[in-house]
Amino acid sequence: QAQLAQLRAEAAHSALERDALRARLNPHFVFNALNNLRALIHEDPERAREMVTRLSRTLRHALEHGDAGRVTLAEELAVVDDYLAIEAIHYEQRLCVLKDISADGGALLPAMALQLLVENAIKHGIAVTPSGGELRIAARQQDGVLHISVENPLGVAADTAGHGVGLAYLRAQLDGNSGRFELRREGDRMRAVLEVPQ
After folding, report:
1. What is the DSSP string of the chain?
2. Has residue 160 got a pLDDT over 60?
3. Each residue of 38-75: pLDDT tens digit?
């Protein structure tokens, strides 16, 4: 019975990692990026070249961090900047990004954690809000803990449960002692909070 339970747990973990890889390589994001790049090639070739570089870096980061390793906050912010620049082509004025980063860039967090939170905020907030809105990203350190928050407007059909594949993957990386994650509604906004001991 113990061996069977262990095998089931390993199978579930493998399935979660496979699904998480799919989540990190969201086909809708890739298709939208390619279609927008196609239009940019004629309108603004220089910007199109920049976006190809950013898309390449985003996909490389997702593939290279398929394990449960940790990366620095500076690395995560770099990939998030690339990701947001690509999404800005798609959402244009509907996406406004505000950042408040006071934490040390060398602070460690699970790979893809911040990118997953930002992607979730766009998917369930900006994308389903006709007028778009503000995406707020904050990071600070206090008492040996890295505090990250990502806020977005509530979508038309807001879901506060947070049971998506990407968030399930993030929770799996925070196995008890390695951090805490919470998704909560605050007025007309949704706030994701990630706390990682350093």
Report:
1. -HHHHHHHHHHHHHHHHHHHHHHHT-HHHHHHHHHHHHHHHHH-HHHHHHHHHHHHHHHHHHHHT-SS-EEEHHHHHHHHHHHHHHHHHHHGGGEEEEEEE-S-TT-EEETTHHHHHHHHHIIIIITTSTT-EEEEEEEEEETTEEEEEEEEE--TT---S---HHHHHHHHHS-STT-EEEEEEETTEEEEEEEEE-
2. no
3. 888 988 999 999 999 999 888 887 777 655 578 899 99
